[in-house]
Specification:
It is built from 1 helix and no strands. It is an all-alpha fold. It has one domain. Keywords: Plasmid.
Length: 41
């Protein structure tokens, strides 16, 4: 079923994009508040 396959690809790409944006925002937020990056350097 190619329709569901296309949907799965779009869903995964959307999820990865959302996840990476959340991680980036959290990284920037932590860096501004604490002065440290996520690795504690």
């Amino acid at each position: 079923m190619p329709d569901s396959n296309i949907f799965n690809i779009q869903y995964i790409c959307g999820y990865v994009k959302l996840l990476s944006e959340n991680v980036l925002l959290k990284y920037i937020y932590n860096n501004e508040i604490t002065g440290y990056d996520s690795f504690g350097h």
